[in-house]
Amino acid sequence: MSLSQAASKATLNPIVDRPGSRQQTEVTRLLPTWILGLVVTVLCVFVLAPLVYIFLASINSDISVARGDFWPAEFTLANYAKIWSSVGLASALTNSIIAAGATAVISAALSIGTAYVLVRYQFRGRLTILRGLLGLQSVPGTLLVLPVFVLFSSAATYLGITVIGTRWGLILTYLTFALPFSTWVMVTYLRGLPKELEEAARIDGASSLGILTKIILPLSWPGIIVSGIFAFLLGWNDVLFASVMTRPDTQTAAVALQIFATGTEGGAIPFYGQMMAASLVCAAPVVILYLFFQKYLVGGLTAGGVK
């Protein structure tokens, strides 16, 4: 067969199993389309049904919610107006945003430099530090509540520095857990960056600090945002440490919700509608954060998966 005949045959009979083609997708698909659609629909129902119920309960009266009514007899936004005074949500949300936001920014900023040193430099104790970062993730936070509380209480006794009950003390507490995790995330991400870029920069006379700020940092934004968001969630969702390390004026939103729910359980009519409204308001910043940084999250979480 001549070269021209082979080319014409390839044109008339294209390869159907080329990567990404529709034919290959249909061949390698494990389940039929209708079954996949059914599975996705069931999963969406399981995820969205509780959210729909919480929203409907938040615009319903407390009596109707306590009676078990799913659909509100009368739609009202009174619960969203009451939570700012009954729950004290304004100050609690401010404390949560400050504590979780500062934890995310500080841990992301420190982890990029720490991870760069651990990945690109060889020194004694490097493997021990990496193993320690990984081992710290297996320690339950409940085991460290008492040691952390005693340590910070001792700072007021021996150093004259008040840590318990302050915002910066809560931030320092969260950093003890967020920083090792953020550093490990950045170590995994930086291992996927090519060394040739740094070598070319060193040939041009760039210093280590210049390489870190001008080459590594711009290329590492997906990993930095992923580590920052996980650190933010650690501080935002925490109840255990925030209930021990804060005062009424510095308590976070999670603690305020817990106190409000506990205080209304013994009443004649629990304020279920207000609790649902407060839960949605507290969840809104996290949802907005995910939507805003969605493309960075996908890039950061999948980095290093394909070599």
From TrEMBL:
| Family to which the UniProt record says this protein belongs | Belongs to the binding-protein-dependent transport system permease family.
Ranges annotated as spanning the membrane: 31-56, 97-119, 139-161, 167-190, 211-236, 271-293
Which domain of life, per UniProt?
Answer: Bacteria
- Entry's localization field: Cell membrane
**Residues annotated as domain ABC transmembrane type-1:** 93-293
Identify the Pfam families for this entry: BPD_transp_1
| Gene3D superfamilies linked to this entry | MetI-like (1.10.3720.10)
Identification of the protein by name:
ABC transporter permease
Q: Which UniProt keywords apply?
A: Cell membrane, Membrane, Transmembrane, Transmembrane helix, Transport
> How does this protein lie in the membrane?
Multi-pass membrane protein
